[in-house]
Amino acid sequence: MARPKKEEPNHGTYYEIKSVIKDPYGNSTRKSFYSEISKADARRKADEYKIKSALGRVNNREIMFSVFSDQWLETCKADSVAANTYQYTYKNSVENHLKPFFQNYAIGSIRIDDVQRFFNNKKGCSESLLNKLKITLNAIFERAISKDLIYKNPCKDVVMPKSEKVSKTMRAYSADDVRMVVDYAKTVSIGNSIIILLKTGLRRGELLGLRWIDVDMESKTIHVRQAVSETSGVMKIGPPKTVTSIRDIPFDDELLEVLKSIPKKVTRYKGKKEKRESYEVLNDYVIPGRSGGALLPTNWQCRIYDNFMEDFSKSHENIPKLNAHELRHTYGTRLYKGGTDIYTISKLMGHANVLITTKIYVHNDIDTIRQAIKQDW
C-alpha cells in the first residue's frame, strides 16, 4: 500500500493555520500559528493558546473595572455621541465618580451590594447626576455581559437613593429689560451676538456655528444647520444638538439692520512691524474668530459675553447679569407671554418634544393666577 503523500509547508518553510481567538475582553481576532513539523502540530499550538485564552476570560477577576471602563469609553462612546455629552455625561461619570469608588474592584467581582453601597454614598446628589451615573454604570456592565466577562448586571436591581431637589428656575429679562439690553448692545462693538441671542433664542453653540450662508436676508430667516462645541479646548463643528434643533427662525427688521451692519471681511496684517502688509479675510461665520473661521466657545465667553455683561451692569445696576442660556430662555418667555402657542415655541426653540417646552414655560405663577381670576364684583 502506498504511503500518503506528505503535506507541503504552506508558508515558506513553515506550516501555517489561522484561527479565531478571543482576548480577555471578548474581542475576536484572527491569529496565525506556525510549525516546522506539520499543520496538525500548528493546530495543536492553536488549541493550547485557545485554552489559555479561555482561562483568561473565565478569570475575569483579573480585569480591573478602571481598565474596562476606559476601554468602554474609547470604543463605545468617544465617537458615537456629541462631544459635550461624552465629556459631561459619560467621561465625567467614569473619571470623577465610578473609578474612584470601584478602583480596587475587578469587573467580575462587583456585586449588587457593592453597587448599592456606591449609590448610597451619593445620597443628596442631584437627580440629574444620579441618572447619569446609573445610565453609565448600567451600560458598562451590559458591555461586560456582551463580552462574556460577567453573566448578570449588578446595576439592574439597585435602589436609587433620594436625590436633592435642586431648583432649576431660570431667570428671564422683562420686555423693558430686553429693550435696554438691545439698545446698549447697539452702541458697543461686542454687542451683536447678545442681540442675536435675544431675538432668536439660539443656543450658544448654534450662534457660534451660524454662517452667512445660513442667513437669508431677503426672507429674514436664520437656518440653524450646525453648532460649535468644545471638549478640553478642542473645537468640534457638527450638526445641532438634536434632529429637532435643525430649524428655521424668522427675525425682525431690527435684527436685519444689525446683521447688515456686521462686516463680512476683516483686515489682517502680515510681516514684521516696520514692513507689515494688510490683506482682507472673508468671514464665513457671523460671529467669527480672528482668522474668519469659527470662534471657540470659551473664547467667546471670555472675550465677548462676560465683558459685555460686566460693562452693561456698570450703567444698569438694577438689571441682573444673565448667562447666555438665560438669554435663550428670555426669548422663549417673551414668546409665551406674548401669546405664541406652545407648539410654535417648541419648534422655534428646537426642543426635542413639546413636553420639554411645556415644562419650562407653562407654569401657574401667582401673577398669572391673579390675572386669570380677576373679575368685576
3D structure, described in words:
- With 377 residues, the protein is of the alpha+beta class.
- Among the domains are: 20-58; 65-146, Tyrosine recombinase, N-terminal domain (DNA polymerase, domain 1); 175-314, hpI Integrase, Chain A, CATH 1.10.443.
- Helix content is 46%, strand content 13%.
- It contains 14 helices and 9 strands.
- It has helices at residues 39-58, 65-77, 83-102, 112-120, 127-146, 175-185, 192-200, 204-208, 253-261, 297-315, 324-337, 342-349, 354-361, 366-372; strands spanning 15-22, 28-35, 215-216, 221-224, 227-231, 234-238, 247-250, 265-270, 277-282.
- The strands form 4 sheets. Strands 3-4-7 form a 3-stranded antiparallel sheet, with no helix packed on it. It has a two-stranded antiparallel ribbon with strand order 1-2. A two-stranded antiparallel ribbon has the order 5-6.
- A hairpin with a 5-residue loop joins strand 1 (15-22) and strand 2 (28-35).
- Helix 2 runs antiparallel to helix 3 (83-102).
- The protein is extended and about 95 Å long.
